[in-house]
Fold:
Amino acid sequence: MTHPVLVEVTRGGIVESRHSGSYAVVNGEGRVVASAGEIDMPVFPRSAIKALQCLPVIESGAADHYGFSDEEIALVCSSHNGEPRHVAAARSMLAKTGLGEEAYECGAHWPIETQALHAMIRADEKPGQIHNNCSGKHAGMLAVARRIDADHHGYVERGHDVQRRIAKVLSEMCDVDADALPCGIDGCSVPTWAIPLRNLALGFARLGSGESLDPERKAAAARIIAAVRAHPFMVAGTDRFCTRLMTKIPRAFVKTGAEGVFCGAVPHAGLGIALKCDDGAGRASEAAFAAVLARLDVWTPEEKAALAPFAHATLKNWRKIEVGEVKAVV
Structure:
């Protein structure tokens, strides 16, 4: 199936590039409210599902046992910049769990945010696993391992008790059998299961609304949404799309994933959304996701106005001259 064009990139008054893709908007009952392209083909959601991966952190009792704050719960859901606040929260979580940075199995990389990166270089510091954009999620996984008395070594392996709990959550939230789905290894070494967009959107509709969830899971989902809503900076950071959008429109939950995937929820409307750009372009998935959100008739006029600028971005050259734009055509 040929997917429709979701985003166009213009220069000099003409279209220079086009990004095709697909998306699904689903309610808590599984009814498709809006869609484009093939929504039943499995895609790897990558980091877009960190809020679902956070559910075992709450449900296992780890969050309460180790006294995680809302800010730290939001970090579990993050692909953060590695800024000082992010690193401090990750270190706090490890300390509360009784583990050191050597327990991480996510790999090291430099902070994403330029100022944090430059500060480390000036200080002649080397990046550690604590700076990995997934270190919050991994701190949460380590906490689960400790709370359920499992050996935390190898917690990233598909057969580990932590990952089995996550696979069960994904199966139940998205109405899939994770064990029957294609499974790869994510950038931070944990398993990533390929799930159809329709089912991903259903999972996020349930996360946001609590529909069809038992009381314990409904409360856990509400706690995650509330934590992210209170601390959008922790989910990404300075100048990042997810943080900027959720700061402007607090009633929206959005989360990016690698290779052009975006997932999110509109809790007050009971809707979940999942989107994939075919070429993996993040700039396209951001604009397209914002446009899909803006088209939903669930916002106040003020929220709609705040969403509009996120559906396009101005392109500037190295001299800061405007040369074109990235514009959603959803």
Summary: DSSP finds 14 helices and twelve strands in the chain. The chain has one domain: 5-328. The first strand starts at residue 5 and ends at 11. The domain at 5-328 is CATH 3.40.710 (Beta-lactamase).
